[in-house]
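--- STAGE predict ---
source: upstream dedup step, 1 unique chain passed
mode: sequence only
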Amino acid sequence: MSQRVNQIAGHLNYPKGMLAGQVAIITGSGQGIGAEAARLFANEGAKVVIADVDAKKAEDVASSINSSGGSAIAVAGDVLNDDYIKTLISKTAEFGNGKIHIIVNNAGYTWDGVIHKMTDKQWHTIVDLHGTAPFKIVRAAAPYFRVKDGEPRCIINISSTSGLHGNAGQINYSLAKAGVTGLTKTIAKEWGPQFGVRSNTVAFGHILTRLTAAKEAGAFVTTPDGEKVALGIPGAQKQASAGAKQEFPDIPLGRPGTATEAASAVLAVASPLFSYVNGQTISVTGGRNM
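--- STAGE serialize ---
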């Protein structure tokens, strides 16, 4: 299966320079889909701000882009911190000579639990991370988007099939990701008519990231107060899926997507190829939940 994935991912080619001259913030871009999106954006000529809670990972991605001839800076911090959001916007505007063109609200993780065992802390952390933080980032960036200079501007909010269809054990994540679609559509309706800002949602299905790896692998994130949150899918659940006649029976393409494929969809939405697409939710799922 991995060989097939690599073959497909290796044939993702685009004409170069689609984002030339644009300045983009991508949150959660120290690794995974966010990092891949940052590299793809830079390859298309964008100046990219790597926003991530992990300073070293953010710096590593920025360095790799710069060493490859692109342009990037790392602005590390926690999107749950209001002061960080102000810093992120101000440093991006400085980097972009007073302009910001693209925001990709990608940062996030899951903190699962069944309804009757979900704690208030789990609930509020995930809802704030996936719903409130993107709103605050967009609000802080308003002066750079509510302008009439003839340059393209777009906001891409990342959602999930959990937000579109719900998912057992993810009531907090499902509500937050469902709310993203309302956030997206409201931005499109408020900032589209006068300022030409496009706002769209990209909803991912099963993508190969640390959130879908085996939980036993030990990946975790640390909350602002120091609590460790384990990431991934329990091994028993993954084994049950592997025991089926088809490894991924709910995905018509028969496999999960790669981070590069997911990031390529984000690039497509940000690009001029989607210049007349606004207020939409684009599902990137391999056909899952079609």
